[in-house]
């Protein structure tokens, strides 16, 4: 049996769009799956039916074929010779900060994902009796891993929140789920930092959250509850000085083999790797993730971290999405601007007024824009898309001109 398929033959394995596939049926489908001829890279495009995608991935792993998740066979044929030796899983991912969210491919072994299955089960308390809901497309690595982990547990995975006992979600997605009636009692949250407000809202609904920090290139790095993160089991962490603050470096059996395309992965000779995220120790001995170093804004001689300002903005009444960028300024070096997604009936002027009380003067955005915040498939702010729109003038002039002039 495939290493990921550990459920009993008659138990539900997958349940998407109302169709239930049992473990025995899934195992037979994996064995019977038709892959492209030869022994090369197998393409599995974005938008593939979830059951078909899981079947293809497991069949490729079973037969020792590397599989490209999120791209068609034509792309797989072009990419095949560029992947590192030993690649089992090639995961396409859109860079959140790259121009236009340009794609890269993260190459890893199947063993690197399998090694993290037992530690995650222990941290989350999930087991074979659980029904686990995923809240995003399976060509995104965090959602695909959530489904494979459910199969490893012998549990079931699907897209229906009704009756689910656990859910994998980004903080933005979880916040929206909390506005509805159906929220499972266990949440596994990743993809961005959670706010204290989100934790309080989840606790008020009786939801037990496990948060983890990771990256497609590093896999799991740190995890915990109640806002405290500690190294994920099996991970060694170092904080090293970087241009914008202390960078987080990790060494573990979960690291990717390498990157094809425009990526941030850096390695050293001792086996540690980083993607440039910044972190700092907390007074209680934990770890606080500050955000990506390339999202830091240097303004008036100070460093402002975009993710920190976004978190504060999201705590304001009526703000449903937030993105913070820096733009060139002849006096300040850079100035801070914010793109906010507002609930119906909420006026930007009130949000700006509340932000003045919530943020320090150096963090306070000088220009404001209202629109739906663009995101990558994994739910992260698509900074590259916003930077392109800012540079081309598509964002407009911002609000309010008088406010911006008074602060320059």
List keywords for this structure.
alpha/beta; five-stranded mixed beta sheet; 27% helix; disordered C terminus
Would you kindly provide a written description of the structure presented here, covering whatever features stand out?
The protein is of the alpha/beta class. The chain contains 12 helices and 25 strands. The strands form 7 sheets. The protein has a 9-stranded mixed sheet, with helices on both faces. A 5-stranded mixed sheet has the order 3-4-5-6-16, with helices on both faces. The longest helix is centred in the N-terminal third of the chain and has 13 residues. The radius of gyration is 22 Å and the shape is globular. The C terminus is likely disordered.
Short summary of the structure?
This protein has 408 residues and is of the alpha/beta class.
Largest sheet: 9 strands, mixed
Cα end-to-end separation: 65 Å
Shape: globular
- Give the tally of β-strands: 25
**SS-based structural class?**
alpha/beta
Cα Rg? 22 Å
As laid out across the biggest beta sheet, the strand order is 2-1-8-7-9-10-11-12-13
Low-confidence stretches: 96-102, 401-408
Mean model confidence by pLDDT: 89
Q: Residue share in helices?
A: 25-40%
Strand content: 25-35%
Provide a count of the helices: 12
